[in-house]
UniProtKB/TrEMBL annotation, chain A:
This is Phospholipid/cholesterol/gamma-HCH transport system permease protein. Keywords: Cell inner membrane, Cell membrane, Membrane, Transmembrane, Transmembrane helix, Transport. Its main location: membrane. The chain crosses the membrane at residues 44-72, 148-173, 202-221, 233-252. Pfam families: MlaE.
From TrEMBL, chain B:
Keywords: ATP-binding, Nucleotide-binding, Transport. SUPFAM superfamilies: P-loop containing nucleoside triphosphate hydrolases. Pfam families: ABC_tran. It comes from the Bacteria. One of its GO terms (molecular function) is ATP binding. This is Phospholipid/cholesterol/gamma-HCH transport system ATP-binding protein. Signal peptide: none annotated. It comes from Rhodobacter viridis. Gene3D superfamilies: P-loop containing nucleotide triphosphate hydrolases.
Length: 259, 247
């Protein structure tokens, strides 16, 4: 009884370690191909459009509502010790350091990791990936590298736009509902915001973009057979990307801001 | 020339190939027949390097395929069972895939002209060039797959179940196309199929794969005269015989 429980635990640990090893090897392979020709510029631009431009509405909406809710929460919390005036600066710092990159990254994970995994997974089960090999094309280079590069470059841009929209959400609620003067709200926002607040959020965005595309490609290329296999790959890609975003967010915050 | 010697491949406890040896001469059309699940596709994937064999050697023009893989693939074409066209690309971009990127890249207009010419070769007009694969019937997809396979005039072509899922008339059309294209180009061809009409239309030589081994091989005439119980059961489609109906 105890032995079988230990054996099951051992199997789970070994399988998790093997999975981590496969992801590490996949990551290494993608990184090694980033700098080596041939480069597929058309696929890269298409991925920029799909991942960056077309994610703008969902990231923008997320930022707008988050900034608005944040303003209400900070106002209510600040009122407990007569510090309502901190709303503009806390909304700005909260958005650019944490909520902009994390919620933006999670929305991109939901939208992009799923679509990459489903597309590449379907290509695998319909032999399109084998067809690429027979056409002298490395599938990793053709499918994964442009997507990973595009996500790493476009998610920080999405985060930057999201930051602006999120601060604007706070400003809208602050001036329309909470009685702030528009000019002083904007002045307070700028006054306490430092360059590294924004910069750290953009670095986080790049890391999250990398993880999202990497997980989408990894699970897509390792998809099982049939519709069920593709469905499982899609679900795994979104779950893994989301968990990795939250875990790496903690690690990056620790590295950037711990005293 | 393709030489396969003593090829073994297992997946976990399931042994698929247990010592396959085959030789295909330059310009010859070999058809490998055998029931579903006998390892025909695994054999092709081993030659292409998509599946690593457990043991055995594969040589193309005398050189081990592992060492000369890029060179081999640069002069290679394949028609897949489901055509395996790229959904995100138009028909002409599928056909001209090699000509739009990589070492064989050409100007876009030139690549398109080659694609339209190859489409015409398989009986498709220029009006299909800008359609997407999802807009085509199964037979048309197979033709586009064939046009893609021959786009850069390969010296070796593989056909994986070329007529599966097609009606008898379309199967005949595809068989005729394969036959004429292979003869015209003088290419070395390996086809895997269980469709006997394909075998008769395409093959110079037939090899039967059964239970992980080449059970029999010979010409079409020899196939019709053989008394091998496995071959006769297969080519006449009998339920009774040494090959179990339920595998």
């Amino acid at each position: 009884m105890i032995l079988s429980a230990l054996a099951a635990l051992g199997r789970t640990v070994l399988s998790a370690l093997a999975g981590a090893g496969r992801v590490a090897l996949f990551t290494g392979a993608v990184l090694s191909h980033l700098a080596r020709p041939p480069f597929y510029s058309r696929e890269f631009l298409q991925a920029m459009l799909q991942i960056g431009w077309l994610s703008l509405p969902v990231v923008g909406m997320t930022a707008l509502f988050t900034g608005a809710a944040l303003a209400l929460q900070i106002y209510a919390g600040g009122a407990r010790f007569s510090a309502e005036s901190v709303v503009p600066s806390i909304v700005a710092i909260g958005m650019v350091r944490e909520l902009g990159p994390v919620l933006g990254g999670l929305m991109v994970a939901a939208r992009v990791a799923s679509s990459i995994a489903a597309e590449i997974g379907t290509m695998k089960v319909t032999e399109q990936i084998d067809a690429l090999v027979t056409l002298s094309t490395n599938p990793l280079k053709y499918l994964a590298v442009p997507r990973v590069l595009a996500a790493t470059l476009s998610v920080p841009l999405l985060v930057a736009v999201g930051d602006v929209i999120g601060v604007m959400g706070g400003w809208l609620i602050g001036t329309e509902r909470l009685g702030f003067n528009s000019a002083s709200y904007i002045r307070n926002t700028w006054e306490y915001l430092e360059g590294w607040d924004v910069g750290s959020g953009l670095v986080k965005g790049a890391a999250f973009g990398f993880l999202v595309a990497l997980m989408g490609c990894y699970y897509g290329m390792n998809s099982g057979r049939g519709a069920q296999g593709v469905g499982r790959a899609t679900k795994s890609a979104v779950v893994a990307a989301s968990v990795l975003i939250l875990a790496s967010n903690y690690l990056l915050t620790e590295v950037f801001f711990s005293k | 020339m393709i030489e396969i010697e003593n090829l073994h491949k297992s997946f976990g406890s399931k042994t698929v190939l247990r010592g396959v040896s085959l030789r295909v001469e330059r310009g010859e059309s070999l058809v490998v027949i055998g029931g579903s699940g006998t390892g025909k596709s695994v054999l092709l994937k081993c030659i292409l390097g998509l599946v690593a064999p457990d043991a055995g050697t594969i040589r193309v023009n005398g050189a081990p395929v592992i060492e000369a893989r890029e060179e081999f693939l640069s002069r290679f074409g394949m028609l897949f069972q489901g055509a395996a066209l790229f959904d995100s690309l138009t028909v002409w971009q599928n056909v001209a895939f090699r000509l739009l990127r990589g070492p064989q890249k050409r100007a876009k207009a030139e690549a398109r002209a080659v694609a339209v010419e190859k489409l015409a070769r398989v009986g498709l007009g220029p009006e299909v060039a800008d359609l997407f694969p999802a807009e085509l019937s199964g037979g048309m997809q197979k033709r586009v797959g064939l046009a893609r396979a021959i786009a850069t005039d390969p010296t070796v072509i593989f056909f994986d179940e070329p007529t599966t899922g097609l009606d008898p008339i379309m199967s005949g059309v595809i068989n005729d196309l394969i036959n004429s294209v292979v003869r015209e180009m003088g290419a070395t061809a390996i086809t895997i199929t269980h469709d006997m009409s394909s075998v008769r239309a395409i093959a110079d030589r037939v090899a039967m794969l059964h239970d992980g081994l080449i059970r029999w091989h010979g010409s079409i005439a020899e196939m019709d005269e053989t008394s091998d119980p496995y071959v006769t059961q297969f080519i006449h489609g009998r339920a009774e015989g040494p090959i179990a109906a339920i595998r």
